[in-house]
UniProtKB/TrEMBL annotation:
Name of this protein: Presequence translocated-associated motor subunit PAM17
Family statement: Belongs to the PAM17 family.
Keyword Ligase among UniProt keywords: no
Organism the protein comes from: Armillaria gallica
Protein localization: Mitochondrion inner membrane
Function: Component of the PAM complex, a complex required for the translocation of transit peptide-containing proteins from the inner membrane into the mitochondrial matrix in an ATP-dependent manner.
Record's GO cellular component terms: PAM complex, Tim23 associated import motor
Stretches of the chain forming a coiled coil according to its record: none
Membrane-spanning residues: 33-52, 67-93
């Protein structure tokens, strides 16, 4: 019977914020990088399938010209690739960075709690003045996080304090 007596170094150390934000950025890059080939694969796969079907231009499909319908289906295949790409990128990132995945998940929860606590209430926004970066998606470093906090405070003061 083999028991695990020692914990690995990655389980014992806490991920600091700079490392977390760097790993978060790399995960986003993996997701973006996988979107491009999955879109291309969806487009070429849809074009290969729908291009090989026998088509009678005189028989509409659901009341639509077959060439337009097959073109829309090919574009839909590309859209599915666009949706699936970030999921594949995230899965590959988790495989490559498996040692840090749990630590990043824990920091993700803490980060999003901080974002939710410090962001401006969405009911204060107007169509001409939306809340800046509501979900903190552009935060990639501690410097950008501090900037995000300042922007949230500036927006809150602008909306809540009367103009003089």
């Amino acid at each position: 019977m083999f028991s695990r007596c020692q914990t690995t170094l990655s389980e014992t150390k806490a991920l600091n914020w700079a490392e977390y934000l760097a790993l978060r950025g790399s995960r986003h890059k993996w997701q973006t990088a996988m979107t491009i080939p999955s879109c291309a694969l969806g487009l070429f796969g849809g074009a290969a399938y729908f291009g090989s079907l026998d088509t009678d231009p005189m028989k509409p499909i659901w009341g639509i010209d077959p060439f337009i319908f097959y073109g829309a289906c090919t574009a839909a295949c590309m859209g599915v690739g666009y949706i699936v790409g970030p999921t594949l990128g995230s899965a590959l990132w988790r495989i490559v960075y498996r040692r840090n995945a749990r630590l990043v998940d824990a920091r993700d929860r803490e980060f999003y709690q901080r974002i939710a606590k410090n962001r401006v209430d969405a009911s204060l926004q107007s169509p001409t003045s939306p809340v800046p970066d509501y979900y903190g998606e552009r935060v990639g470093s501690l410097r950008q996080y501090r900037r995000w906090l300042r922007d949230q405070g500036k927006y809150k003061r602008k909306v809540l304090l009367p103009e003089e």
